[in-house]
Amino acid sequence: MFIDLNDLALRGGERHQRVYSLDVAPVVLGGAGYQVLVPDGVKVAVNRVAGGFLLDVSLDARVYGPCARCLQEAVLEVHAEQQEFAATAKGGWEGTELSEFIEELVADISAITREALVLALPAQIVCAPECKGLCPRCGHDLNVGCCACGPEGIDERWGVLKDLRLGDDVAP
Ligand SMILES: [Zn+2]
Ligand SMILES: [Zn+2]
User: Fold this and answer.
1) Among 71, 129, 136, 156, which is least packed, fewest CB within 10 Å?
2) Average confidence score pLDDT of the chain
3) pLDDT tens profile 88-115
4) Ion ligand 2: protein residues whose beta carbon lies under 5 Å
5) Which pLDDT value is given to residue 153?
């Protein structure tokens, strides 16, 4: 979805505000795919400011996919917002001040939405903060109950140590 900022015919100090409904492609996080729903749409505000346009994009997304710990379905509600600037004249701006998503005053709203969402997501999506995950030995879902592996199988410190080893050759 693109908006040509010139088409808005905004004069200095004017503002264009609209809600756009658009589909957001699934995001991949830690190797797993997550579906994205934006039920209330993506709010876009364009402000005509000195030297260019200031774009504010905000959305409330619902992200669905496997819990990073137990692999059961997890749902995350996340608020994302992003501000981008586009200059009406090329000269006089640092590259870092200009939006990489706005070319020739045509704003790629889908790309800005995606960037905002990805930045707002946590490193891991879990079904609940207290999710106990799977037994590292037998794969049993520890939220359902203990498995037969015994105490060391469900000791969380064991899991942490295992993760820390990361392929170095220190003997356990
Ligand atoms: Zn979980
Ligand atoms: Zn087990």
Assistant:
1) 129
2) 88
3) 987 778 777 899 999 999 999 999 999 9
4) 135, 137-138, 140, 147, 149, 153
5) 42
Q: How far is the CA of 65 from the centre of ligand 2 (A)?
A: 24
Would you call 81 helix, strand, or coil by DSSP? strand
CA distances from 36 to 70, 78, 116, 151, 167 (A): 20, 10, 13, 38, 34
Q: Which ligand is nearest to the CA of 70?
A: 1
Q: Three-class SS string for 18-69?
A: EEECCCCCCEEECCEEEEEECCCCEEEEEEEECCEEEEEEEEEEEEEEECCC
Q: Ligand 1 centre and the CA of 145: distance in Å?
A: 13
Listed as own residue / partner, the contacts of 141-148 with beta carbons closer than 8 Å and 24 or more positions apart are 141/70, 141/72, 142/70, 143/70, 143/72
If you measure from the C-alpha of residue 99 to the centroid of ligand 2, how many angstroms do you get, rounded to a whole number? Answer: 50
Tell me the two tokens of residue 101: 């998503």
User: How far is ligand 2, taken at its centre, from the CA of residue 139, in Å?
Assistant: 6
d(CA 68, ligand 1 centre) in Å: 7
Which pLDDT belongs to residue 154?
A: 45
